[in-house]
Amino acid sequence: MSEVAFMDTDKGGSGVVGQFVNADGGKMYSMWPSSFHHGFGRDSKAVTLQNGKRSIASLAASLSLNSSHVDAAHSYFKLAVEHKFIQGRKTETVVAACLYPECRKQQTTHKLQYYPYILQTNVLNP
After folding, report:
1. pTM
2. Which residue has the higher pLDDT, 118 or 40?
């Protein structure tokens, strides 16, 4: 963080004013007293990426996959977010679609038929 200051609000509270730089070295986010309680002003894309990584890690754990699978699937998930592929789709379905090609690439024994069973999803009648 740089240029951090504290200020009093109208109702007697206090807050932080300044800018927050993402750990990836990316976008800078302004921090105002109203955003102090809402995740330091993070945008919805950053929250979506974080939730996606958490979902990928959860599914990978249920399939006994390692962290390299999670990282590669998260790269696919980032592409899906960038190209708005996730809009109107369940996150768990997109996560499975991101993890499956990495399993094929690394030649794991996980077949496509495992995913609907683990996700408890009927793929024939969505």
Report:
1. 0.61
2. 118
